From TrEMBL:
Pfam families: Vitellogenin_N (PF01347). The keyword Membrane does not apply. Residues 98-290 form the Vitellogenin domain. Keywords: Signal. InterPro entries: Lipid_transp_b-sht_shell, Vitellinogen_b-sht_N, Vitellogenin_N. GO terms for molecular function: lipid transporter activity. This is Vitellogenin domain-containing protein. The keyword Signal applies.
Amino acid sequence: MFVQGLIPFFLIAHINLEHGPKLKNANKYIFTVNMNIMWTRESINPFGFRVLSQLHCIPKRNHSEAESNILSCSLKHNESINYGKNELDDNLINWRKDVTNEPIELVFKQEEGIEKMIVRQQIKTYDLNVLRLIAEQLHTGNDFSDVGNGTFEDVARSIIGKCRVVFKITRRPENTKRNRRNFNLYLLPPSLNLKDNETIVIDKTTDLNHCTCYAEKYYCKYGNTVVCENQQADLESMTSRMEISKTSFVSSTTRKGTIKQNSQTYNVVETITLTLEDVQIATNDPPAIVNPGKTKILANYDVKNILIDDEQL
C-alpha cells in the first residue's frame, strides 16, 4: 500500500510499504546536511571546515487546516571536520561550527515558502542562524503558478533579506544510476508537471542590489549596497538550486564573498546542501518546543512572543 505525506506546498511523497500495516503517524523525512565554508587567498592553501548532519522532519497538522503546513525538524548525528591551517580569529568562524539539535517548526505559506519559524524563545542567535541556513534549503520562494517559458523574475525572501530573484527552470533525463527508493515524489504545482525519468532543475540567482530589506549585522555589504559598516564580510553573490525527480530531492545554496582581517583579504565560499535520503513512517510525535516564540528566516531577526499578531512579526 501507499501512505501519503507532505513537504508543505511543494512535494508529496508516497511510501511503498511491503506489509501495509494500519498507520496513524505522519511520514518522517530524513535529509543529509552538508555545510562547507572555505577561505582562500593568494599563495596559501585553502582552509575551512565542514559540518555533516542529518535533518529529521515530520509534518505537523494544524487543527484548523485540512493539510499540514508545518514541518517539525531537528538535527541529528552532527559532525564537524576542520581542514587546512586556520589564519582567522576563532571568534569569526566558530559559531558556524556549532550545530544545535534544538527542534524547530517551519510554517509554510503557499505563495512564499517558509512564512515563519517557531523556536524556543531563549535560543541563541548563532544557533538560530545555523538552523536558518539549513531551513532555507526547503524554502521555495515562489508558488510556480506561472513559469512562462521557464525563466521569470519575482521578489523572494531568504536568510539575507527580501530581494529580486531570477528563477530558471530546466529539465534533464534522470540519473538512472541512483539506488531504488521506497518512495516516489510528486510536485504539487501543476505547472511544473514532473514526469517519469526526468529531473526538474530550479535555479535561483539573487540580485543583491535590488532588495527591499537586508539582514542586519550579517554582512557589511550586499553587492554594491553597504548595510553595516562594522562587519568584516562582504557578500558578492548568492545562487541556489533545487533538483527534483520522482526519487530524489537535492537543494543547495552557494554564497561567495570576501572577508578582511589583519590587512589581508580572503575569498570566502559557503555552500549548504540538503539531500533527501529516505522517507519513513514516524514512530514518535514531533518534539514539543518549550516556551515557543516565532521569527523570520531572516538572519539575526528577533524571536517574538508567540501571541503577537503575524502582521507585527
